[in-house]
Design goal:
Largest sheet: 2 strands, antiparallel
Order of helices and strands: EEEEEE
Helix content: under 10%
Shape: globular
Number of helices: 0
């Protein structure tokens, strides 16, 4: 992942992968949203150590994979 200003770009280094995500209900709060990888089912975008990572999320990490969207 890379960022330029306020834009984050997810780019895969594996040929044939899409860097696509499915928006799901929030893992820790139904008012939020979680983003599951299309290429790695069961893995979600999550905040860890100040960075955005793709990871399997344990029960105690669900808050880190729940995002609150505003328009």
């Amino acid at each position: 992942m890379a960022h330029e200003g306020v834009t984050v770009t997810a780019a895969s280094s594996r040929e044939g992968s899409s860097s696509a995500f499915l928006q799901r209900g929030g893992l820790s709060d139904a008012a939020g949203a979680s983003f599951e990888s299309v290429d790695v089912p069961g893995s979600y975008l999550a905040l860890r150590n100040g960075g955005l990572v793709l990871a399997k999320v344990g029960k105690d990490e669900r808050t880190a994979a729940t995002f609150f969207l505003r328009s």
